[in-house]
Automatic annotation (TrEMBL):
Its cofactor is pyridoxal 5'-phosphate. It comes from Alishewanella jeotgali KCTC 22429. It comes from the Bacteria. Coiled coil: none annotated. This is Diaminopimelate decarboxylase. The lineage of its organism: Bacteria, Pseudomonadati, Pseudomonadota, Gammaproteobacteria, Alteromonadales. The keyword Membrane applies. The modification N6-(pyridoxal phosphate)lysine is found at K70. Pfam families: Orn_Arg_deC_N (PF02784), Orn_DAP_Arg_deC (PF00278).
Length: 411
């Protein structure tokens, strides 16, 4: 079960010198000294820029790029992406405040999430942020809050379409879902919307996440454009924007291949021509999280101990599940697979051994990598987990067992 395919792909993104991994020109030893820490997440701004450039090179210019802050809300990352993307999607009031303080124009910020408290809704109404409405009940609450505040709320109806995004890591549309309003219900609601005290800016059609199959995304885009045209035709006035969703995935595991954006971009170009009249003058948006940040980040911890138990060699580290839940396999994986890993100060050592890398927590769930072939490693060496720039510290139980929280740095 040792795993090298993706190790090479993701490793090749980063520079190296004398067998040492470099981020922003710094070795892991240097980053550790910079931070005064031996466990950290480090993000490379050049790789984030490359991901944005890849999107821009393939996806027609007409389609704007928004970043879903939930993937990585680290403030320097948000600031860096502010200058690279056209808008932000937020999932909480806290993320909304980050988006506002970054200087992103308010019209380019949207707020999604199936359960928003009145205080969160009011905060978005006061800010002028577009609320992606997730239910008829939420729309009623938004209308009432807007009336009391004497402000017209800016809203987009989040639509739960009848179709789904096939082959997705996470399916978030089609069938019964807690997200958005069912397409049929939206069509019934639209004639009444003109009488409501809200400004309907448009629609949000988000079907799923972590998709590596171009054909599945193309199929979803075809359905999404058809639905968008149907919604525009049924809308009492012309909407300003339509969010076409996202779902561009990144390869985490052995055997996975990078998403090929060439056919996705070509298909979007054809769809823009096909729906040129139906969607004329409407701003179109694709909203991505992990695609922009995951490959730019590594999680780094230090080997504390090396021991052999009945034939298995364990590297015991000072970081693990509490900082990086997704890597431990406990953030939505059915069968645990290894993220790509390396020893960051011994990148191309030829002599290798099979090891299992674990964290400091007293639970068998705290696995960093299981049965991987790596250079001969000793205490003090750096374990690097690639593809770690999204859903890291903020998607991990950092309080669990009271170990210190992890630090982050953007280089
Ligand atoms: C509404 C919405 N937008 C964007 C995302 C980001 O997904 P990803 O990081 O896979 O691009 C999600 C993920 O759950 C989401 O629910």
């Amino acid at each position: 079960m040792s795993d090298t395919t993706i190790q090479h792909e993701s490793m090749s993104q980063f520079a190296q010198r004398d067998n040492q991994l470099l981020l922003g020109g710094f070795s892991l030893n240097a980053i550790s000294q910079l931070l005064g820490k031996t466990v950290f997440y480090a993000y490379d701004r050049q790789i984030m820029l490359q991901q944005v450039q890849k999107f821009r090179a393939h996806v027609p210019e007409r389609i704007k790029l928004h970043y879903a802050i939930k993937a990585n809300p680290y403030w320097p990352v948000v600031q860096c992406l502010k200058s690279l993307v056209d808008g932000f999607d937020v999932a909480s009031q806290q993320e909304m405040l980050l988006a506002l303080q970054s200087g992103m124009p308010v019209k380019d910020i949207s707020f999604a999430g199936p359960g928003k408290e009145d205080a969160e809704l009011l905060s978005a109404i006061v800010a002028g942020v577009t609320l992606n409405v997730e239910s008829v009940g939420e729309l009623a609450r938004i209308s009432q809050l807007g009336r009391h505040a004497n402000i017209t709320p800016q809203v987009a109806l989040r639509v739960n379409p009848a179709f789904e995004l096939k082959a997705s890591g996470m399916k978030m549309a089609g069938g019964a879902k807690p997200f958005g309003i069912d397409e049929e219900q939206v069509l019934q609601l639209l004639p009444q919307i003109a009488k409501m005290p809200v400004k309907l800016r448009g629609f949000h059609i988000f079907c799923g996440s972590q998709n590596l199959k171009a054909e599945a995304l193309i199929d979803a885009h075809q359905h999404t454009f058809a639905l968008a045209a149907k919604l525009v035709a049924a809308c009492p006035y012309r909407p300003e924007m339509i969010n076409l969703g996202g779902g561009f995935g990144i390869p985490y595991f052995s055997g996975e291949r990078r998403l090929d954006l060439t056919p996705v971009g070509q298909s979007l170009q054809l769809l823009l021509q096909q729906y040129q009249v139906a969607l004329a003058d409407i701003e179109l948006v694709i909203e991505l999280g992990r695609y922009l940040v995951a490959e730019a980040g590594v999680y780094v911890c230090q080997v504390l101990d090396k021991k052999v138990s009945r034939g298995t060699t364990y590297l015991v580290c000072n970081g693990g599940l509490h900082h990086h839940l997704a890597n431990s396999g406990n953030f939505g994986q059915v069968i645990r697979k290894n993220y790509p890993v390396a020893i960051g100060n011994k990148l191309s050592a030829t002599e290798q051994e099979q090891v299992t890398i674990v964290g400091p927590l007293c639970t068998p769930l705290d696995i960093i990598a299981d049965k991987v072939l790596l250079p001969i490693t000793e205490p003090g060496d750096w374990v690097v987990v690639y593809q770690s720039g999204a859903y890291g510290p903020t998607a991990s139980p950092q309080q669990f067992l009271g170990h210190p929280a992890v630090v982050e740095v953007l280089l």
